[in-house]
Amino acid sequence: MDILEKVEAYYETAHHFKEGINVLRDLALKANAEETFKWQAPVYAIDGKNVFWIARFKNHFGIGFFNGMFLKDPKNVLVNVQKGKTLTMRHWHFTSLDEIDEKGVLYYIREALENQKKGLVLAPAQKKKRKAVIVPQLLMDALKKNSAEDIFKKLSPYKQTEYAEYIADAKQEKTKIKRLDKIIPIIKKGKGLNDKYR
Predict the structure, then answer these.
(1) Does 130 reside within a domain?
(2) Which one of 13, 30, 33, 112 has the fewest beta carbons within 10 angstroms of its own beta carbon?
(3) Superkingdom of the source (predicted)?
(4) Domain assignment of residue 79, yes or no
(5) Per-residue pLDDT, 84
(6) How far apart are CA 143 and CA 154, in angstroms?
């Protein structure tokens, strides 16, 4: 089934909100939004960027805006249904056909499309910088002694941390030495401590 067939099937499926979602679809098409199908629902885009979707549920139907936090919302109808989880998405819910303010919905759709054209999107949060790997002196000495220091440095920070913690977590000196004897050959092969389990 291609995308167009999926969209048509969604709108034609018997449902108590069938008429309501079709009114919303007409408004979306009137605004010249690109119609596609993602996440089991019709999604509308501009220049290939997702802007809003139309969906039906058990107790309501509605339109959801991916970057709804940027909408002016003069009617005060938009809700964030997953506070704490979603920052930008906003939904406008309806429980009956009579609740649809066609002029208002079209205004919101057009504003959302314009916002997307302007690039009004929330930039992803910067990833926290990784802490520097603290390598125990015993491990550093063993790497130097076995000419494995350069190989160790080429490992990912995650793998370096695994080795460092493996040595640091050992309580007794003899356990640390035993562990060093085990890991130095693995490091020399350029592998991580737990690669064989991945």
Answers:
(1) no
(2) 13
(3) Bacteria
(4) yes
(5) 72
(6) 13
Domain identity same for 105 and 62 = yes
pLDDT score at 124: 60
The model's pLDDT over 43-87, given as tens digits with 9 standing for 90+, comes to 999 998 999 999 999 999 999 999 999 999 999 999 987 777 778
Number of domains present in the structure of the chain: 2
SS3 43: strand
Residue 130: pLDDT over 90: no
Domain boundary among 118, 148, 170: 118
CA distances from 52 to 38, 49, 59, 72, 100 (A): 11, 10, 20, 15, 16
Domain range for residue 42?
3-118
Nearby residues of 24 by Cβ (< 8 Å), 6 or more positions away: 54, 61, 62, 63, 100, 105
Residues 111 and 161 in one domain: no
Q: Are strands 90-94 and 34-38 parallel, antiparallel or unpaired?
A: unpaired
Distance from C-alpha of 55 to C-alpha of 51, rounded to nearest angstrom: 14
Cβ neighbours of residue 57 closer than 8 Å, sequence gap 6 or more: 17
